[in-house]
Amino acid sequence: MIEMQGVTKKYPNGVTALSGIDVTIKQGEFVYIVGPSGAGKSTFIKLIYREEKPTDGQVVVGGINTANLKQRSVPTLRRQVGVVFQDFKLLPLLNVYENVAFALEVIEEEPKVIRKRVMEVLDLVGLKHKARMLPTELSGGEQQRVAIARSIVNNPKVVIADEPTGNLDPDTSWDIMSLFETINERGTTIVMATHNKEIVNTIRRRVIAIENGRIARDEQRGDYGYEA
Question: Under the GO molecular function aspect, what terms does this record hold (predicted)?
Fold first, then answer.
């Protein structure tokens, strides 16, 4: 599903965020990306959904080489990749239904398909009854559930999550993780950057640790390995 070969990312300010990254993530895996702040985790994540391009090497997602992808073709890639952010990034003037539907409207899906699919994913995340509420009327955990619903409404092959529990209390964080597990069990690949030691050490999955822009560990059922 995701393959990086010899990937290096240097920013215009001279900082080398990643260097010589080689990694393969298979369809259906659940992978944590861990490491100290500034290690390169966010850059790793951004390369997958083509927010950034590698300076050297190849990033292939679902058979698409993102390094060679023309800007007009980026939406094609992003139909395969759902993204969940720490700060939710919901549209404040749109209600829950409209926020999720927006992801389908931009690809000009048929209205009847949009209605059916949006209500299905809102039911999955437990927010069908709050479809007409605005983001400001929801708790942080509910807002993150809306963000997750939006990320999966296109039936993506992979969901990228960048610190998805970073702004949530512990109980809500576990609820969100349960939701990610459900999505993964349905066959969707999950790649999650996180600093949450307790979650990584409790819900054991593959762990890729990045330090100083390089892969320091890649372990099946690994642990967090750092002080929280």
Answer: ATP binding; ATP hydrolysis activity; transmembrane transporter activity
Average pLDDT score over residue span 77-104: 92
Taking domain 2-80+156-219, whether its CATH number is 3.40.50.300 is answered by: yes
Phi and psi (nearest 5°) for 138?
-110, 155
Cβ neighbors of 161 (< 8 A, separation 6 or more) are 83, 84, 180, 190, 191, 192, 193, 194
First to last CA, the chain: 30
Q: For residue range 39-84, what is the model confidence (pLDDT) as tens digits? A: 999 999 999 999 999 999 999 999 989 888 888 888 788 888 999 9
Write the DSSP symbol of residue 14: S
Cβ(131)–Cβ(119) below 8 Å: yes
DSSP element (H, E) containing 74: helix 74-78
DSSP for 114-138 reads HHHHHHHHHHHTT-GGGTTS-GGGS
Give the model confidence (pLDDT) of 139-198 as tens digits.
999 999 999 999 999 999 999 999 999 989 999 999 999 999 999 999 999 999 999 999
Report the DSSP beta bridge partners of residue 159.
82, 190
Nearest to 29 by CA among 162, 160, 218, 190: 190
What 3-state class would DSSP assign to 181?
helix
Rounded CA gap, 156 and 1, in Å? Answer: 11
